[in-house]
Design goal:
This protein is an alpha+beta fold and 361 residues long. Helices cover 24% and strands 23% of the residues.
Length: 361
């Protein structure tokens, strides 16, 4: 199965299935002598971990990471870093009744059409369980970027309920189960999710991810633009159906004088008066916040019966039991952060390689 590797100079390859014995990721391209421990990775995995509140899947996984290679005496060696996460709470029997059915909205039909075989246990390779590997790789990427780059994400919308940006409080993000920066919207999210769960349905969300402290000059101006890489990175996350950078689609409604981010000189440095570009101009970082938003569709596994067909083409009806997120967009926040970190680490290493080969200015 090609397509399980992401990145160029900083790259990772994930492996494993939702109900297999383990999942894992091999991270390559990490420079030597960077401090790295399992605790550095575990913090981020715990934020994505299932079973942490009544608003996410109740699958109980500790998501304990094990470093198998690439680290010696607490420092990276420059060799590939292999990370293992064991699956502990699989319940494959929940899926036996629908093993021959194609669940609407899932990859069951397409996997069967492509490979002629599919792992029906929780979605197999197509399961969002794979995103734990991305979060682990993203934790390593953050170490490559260093403490000067600050990456954080949050939910800005669930269904029709949106945050009020005038009440944005970053400290609030980790105080509630929704990664919500607006404390007054938290109870509205809770009420909506409680209603959705009672009805046996699901709902979508919009997540925003910000990278602060990214130096200007990262990126390549044609095909390997950071914004293009970020769009691919976010679109590769399970259930993501749309991505925008900076003003995004709203830029289509702006006039030129409104959209162009004016510049002034303050203390001998360029300062932008707005950030419609989302921190990237011409495929190169400006030094402003890099801002990405992505839309996550409703979880396809729901209790409400849906019409479908089975592998023999017979019309059937399907209800998906088991343990599922009523809004998978919530746990997508640390995944989006991880993919942002991986893209930026990749471009940072590319820039270092360019500078090492270029003569002094």
């Amino acid at each position: 199965m090609p397509g399980s590797t992401f990145g160029h100079m900083f790259r990772f390859t994930s492996w494993g299935e939702s109900h297999g014995p383990a999942i894992g990721v091999v991270v390559d391209g990490v420079p030597p002598r960077i401090p790295l421990s399992e605790a550095d990775i575990q913090h981020h995995l715990d934020r994505r971990r299932p079973g942490t509140s009544r608003f996410v899947t109740q699958r109980r996984e500790s998501d304990r990471v094990e470093i198998l290679s690439g680290v010696f005496n607490g420092l990276t060696t420059g060799a590939p870093i292999s990370l293992l996460i064991r699956n502990e709470d699989v319940r494959s029997k929940d899926y036996e009744d629908i093993s021959d059915l194609y669940r609407p909205g899932h990859a069951d039909f397409t996997y069967d059409m492509k490979y002629g075989i599919r792992d029906w246990r929780g979605g197999g390779r197509a399961s969002a369980r794979e995103t734990a590997c991305r979060v682990a790789a993203g934790a390593v990427a953050r170490k490559v970027l260093g403490e000067g780059v600050d990456i954080f994400g949050y939910v800005v919308r669930i269904g029709e309920v949106e945050i009020d940006r005038s009440r944005f409080d970053r400290a609030e993000i980790d105080r509630n189960p929704f990664f919500c920066p607006d404390p007054e919207t938290v109870p509205r999210f809770a009420a909506l999710l409680a209603e959705i769960r009672r009805e046996g349905s699901s709902i979508g969300a919009v997540v925003e991810v910000v990278a602060r402290g990214v130096p200007p000059g990262l990126g390549d101006p044609v095909y390997d633009r950071p914004d293009a890489d970020l769009a691919k990175a976010m679109m590769s996350i399970n259930a993501v159906k749309g991505v925008e950078i900076g003003a995004g689609f709203a830029a289509a409604a702006l006039r030129g004088e409104e959209n162009a981010d004016e510049m002034v000189i303050e203390d001998g440095r360029v300062r932008f008066l707005s950030n419609n570009a989302g921190g990237i101009l011409g495929g190169i970082s400006t030094g402003q916040d890099i801002v990405v938003r992505f839309a996550v569709k409703p979880t396809s596994s729901i209790l409400i019966p849906r019409r479908t067909v089975d592998r023999l083409g017979r019309p059937r009806e399907v209800r998906t039991r088991g343990r599922h997120d009523p809004c998978v967009g919530i746990r997508a926040v640390p995944v989006g952060e991880a993919m942002m970190a991986c893209v930026l680490a990749d471009h940072l290493l590319r820039q270092r390689a360019l500078e090492a080969c270029a003569p002094p200015r």
